[in-house]
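agent> fetching stored inputs for the adenosine-5'-diphosphate docking request
agent> found them:
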Amino acid sequence: MRRSSAAERLSEPELIPVDVERAHEEYERCAETPESVYENLDHGHALYETISESRQTLLEKREAEGDEFARERRQVYSHLEQGKLVHTRAKLENEGRGVTRPAIVDHDGSQILAFHKPFTGSLELFLGSDDVVYRVVSSLDARGQLTRKLAPIENLRDVGIDSVDQIKENIQAAEGQREHYSQIYGIDAHRLTHRANPFRLRDIDSHAESRAAVSASILSELLKNKERIVPVTVARNDEHGPGTLQQGVEGEIFGIEQVKRIYQSGDPDQYAYPILDLACGQFLNYETDGTAYNVVGGKLIDNGYSFVLSMQDPNAEESLHHAERHYPAGPLNGIALDILHDFPHWELDEDERQPYLDLVRDVNTYRSILQKKLTLREQRALPDSVREGDAARLVNNVFRYIFERVDENGEVIPETRTVAFHEARNFIARAHYIGMNGRPPRFELPKRRMRNFRERFEKKRSTS
Ligand SMILES: Nc1ncnc2c1ncn2[C@@H]1O[C@H](COP(=O)(O)OP(=O)(O)O)[C@@H](O)[C@H]1O
Ligand SMILES: [Mg+2]
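agent> prediction call returned; pasting C-alpha cells
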C-alpha cells in the first residue's frame, strides 16, 4: 500500500556510519555548560508567564460560564504554583529516572499530594570511545549551574539495551534525523538543540523536559472534555531547584493486568473508551515515552518526552493527511496507541470528536480574522474568546515555549521560532485528524517493540 511505504520511509531516517570518536567529542562539547543557559532560562520563564496568564484567563472565562471543573483546576494551579513544597519520605515502587518524589504541597492551610519532578535526565546513555556504555545523570541547579555524572553500566540489559551495536544503531538514526532536520528547517545542525542530538544532552540548557510536561497539561485544557487526561502540571524553580510539580493522581498503573483484561475478556469493545481517549492524547502530544508506568489512573502523567519534532518530508505523498505527512521524528511510544493498533474499528463517537473539531475551528477562525477574511459583522457574531483568539494564541505560545531558543546574547534564534510555528500547526492538524477520523492514524509500529508487546501478552495468556 502506498500509504505505509511513505510512513516507513519517514520513520527510518537514513543511517550514517557511526563515528565513536566524533560522538565522544560531541559529548565533551555538550557537557560544558552552554553560554546561552541563563538567557534560555530567562526566555523560558518569560514565555511560561505568558502562557500561564492565558491559561488562567481561559479557565476564568469557563468558570464564569459555570464550568465547575475549570474552577477546581484553577485552584489546583494556584495551589501548586504558590504552595510550600514538603517532600515526603515515601518511596516509589517503580523509580523511573529515580528523581520523582511524592510531596505534600501546603497552601493556605490546606494540603494536596503532588509529584515533584526535578529537572534531570539520568536515563541518558553515553557510548565512550572505549565502547563502554555510561549512564549520564545531568542536573541544573537554580543558578543555572550544570553538573553531569557518568557511571559505567555493567549489564546493558539493566537499561533495556541488547548490545553496544544497538546503541550504535540508535546513534546513527539520531545523526540521520539531525541531518534531516537541519535540511528541512535550514538550520545549522549544531544550533538545533531540541531532541535531535544523539544524547539529547543539549536539551539541558533549556529545561526542555519540564517545558514539554507543562505544555501537555495546558494543551489538554483546550479540549474541553479531555482536560482531565493530563493532571495539572506547573513549572517550579525554588529551593529544591528547577522542575515541575504535578497534581497527584489516584489509581492503578496501566499494567499487564489491564492489558490482559482487555484481550481476554471476550468482549474487548467494552474497553474502547479509556483506551481511545488515552491513545488520542498520546498521538496529539507525540508521546515517545507513553509506557505503562506513565499512565496512571487513566491519565498521562509523564510527558517530558512528548512533542518531538515532526519529520516534514517534502516528498511524502500529497494524498496523505497533513497529520500523517508530518510524521513524528521519533517513533511514538504509547501503550494505548499500541493497543489501538489491534482494534481498527474503535473510533471516538461524535460527541467525543466535537472538542477536537471545536478547537480546530476556533484556531482557523482566528487565522481568518488575521488574514482579514471575515467581515466586521461576521466577527461580531463570534464568541469573545474566539474573536480574541484565546486558543490560537495559547497554542502558538505553548509551542514557542517548547521549541524557541535564544543565543548567548538573548536573541531568539529565528529558525527555532519557525520550528515552533510549524509544530503548532502540526498539532492542530493532529487534532483535526482525530476530529475527522475519531482515532489517530495507524502508524507502523517499530517491529521490535511490537514483538515484545505481543510476546509478553502471548506468554501471559499461555500461562494463565
Ligand atoms: N501525578 C502523579 N500521580 C500519581 N503517581 C505519579 C504521578 N507522577 C508520577 N507518579 C509516579 O511516579 C513514577 C515516576 O514518575 P515519572 O513522572 O514517570 O518520572 P520518571 O519516569 O521520569 O522517573 C510514575 O511511574 C508513577 O508511579
Ligand atoms: Mg515515567
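agent> quick read of the result: The chain has a mean pLDDT of 82.
agent> awaiting further instructions
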